[in-house]
Amino acid sequence: MSRRSGLALAALVIVLILVIAVIGSGSDPGPALDPDNPRPAGTKALRLLLEDLGADVGVRDRDPGGADVVLVLRDRLIEDSHQRLLAFARAGGTLVVADPTSPLANRAGRRPVGSGNECTIEAWRVFRITQVRPPAAPLDPDGQDYCLGTDTGAVVTSRVEGGGAVLSVARPELFANQYIGQDDNARLAVVLLAPTTDTSVVILDPGYIETPLPGTGNQGLWDLIPSNIKWAMLQVAIAFGLLVLAVSRRHGRPVPEQKAVELASSDLVAATGTLYERARRPAFAAGVLQDDLRRIIARRTGLAADAPVADLARAAETRLGVPASSVQRVLSGGAADEAELLDLAHDLSRIRQEVLDG
């Protein structure tokens, strides 16, 4: 790779990383219903609205403390916390439950409410709350006080709990930043949570999760990885892919390579013999010929190729009819010069033929 190509590739990688970082930071919605989250899914606008109206707003995990109103946006609490919140309501507090699946929410039967946006809570009629967004699956009042009621149910229901009250809301997203300014959502939030000035309000942070029972969670391993770690993994994968692309690409035209010369087996044997002849190593050549005869005798007699020469000679005489003395002589002999190598080669060839014909 040329220097110019390397610089261009590095610049491309940096630009991609910056683009991914910007997109990743802008696409993270943050914790849903979090009172400190300013993005559309959070509820920071609700907290600021109540504070602007003079309410004392606090964010806690599960303890209502000395609050006048407690808001449960998403119920992730255990039974002990539920009992504390009910005791808080019985002592005169107002408990607002925006999670319709919570055990604290008002349970309902079936009873038509009416044909219009009815409200049986006398104190709320003056506020003229007629429409909220997004549309919510209505709650069934079952004889309880309600507001925003239709012939299918109500958005808000109320029940008396000791000296206080429990108010159920059909959908927690009514308090989200993206909806709090639409229709009558803000008016509904004020009526529910801060009907008078100097009201003490506690929002139970939905980001807090008490220890659940084993096997009751619904998050997988991928859900537990922070979003910034996921984006970092994506950046590393892209950088690795670009690196592989850069080192695997061949720049310029392909260069034809000269093919290796193919030799027939007979030519290879002749060439090898010529090399040995030039090297003047008759003893080595004699050993090669003797090893070849040893393998043939061993294969024909069933012995191991590395068996002693005496055993091979006896087996050749017993099973193949070749004299043992001849076999032992050619397998034990050597070649000090080319003349002896030639004589040994003749003898080995003769014995080899006798073994094959045996």
Strand order of the largest sheet: 1-8-2-3-7-6-5-4
Tell me the number of structural domains. 3
Largest sheet: 8 strands, mixed
Query: How far do the termini sit from each other?
Result: 68 Å
Helix content: 40-55%
Task: Provide the structure class.
Answer: alpha/beta
| Poorly predicted segments | 209-213
Question: Which whole number gives the mean pLDDT?
Answer: 77
Order of helical and strand elements:
HHEEHEEEEEHEHHHHHH
Number of strands: 8
Rg calc: 47 Å
Give the overall shape.
rod-shaped
Proportion of residues in β-strands? 5-15%
The number of helical runs is 10
Give a description of the structure:
The chain is an alpha/beta fold. The protein folds into three domains: 3-28 and 228-248; 44-208, no CATH class; 265-357, no CATH class. It has ten helices and eight strands. The protein has helices spanning 3-27, 44-52, 79-90, 185-193, 227-248, 265-279, 282-301, 309-320, 324-332, 338-357, and strands spanning 56-60, 69-72, 94-97, 118-119, 145-150, 153-161, 164-169, 200-204. Strands 1-8-2-3-7-6-5-4 form an eight-stranded mixed sheet, with helices on both faces. Strand 2, helix 3 (79-90) and strand 3 form a beta-alpha-beta unit. Helix 7 crosses helix 8 and helix 8 (309-320) runs antiparallel to helix 9 (324-332). The radius of gyration is 47 Å and the shape is rod-shaped. The two termini are 68 Å apart. Residues 209-213 have low confidence and may be disordered.
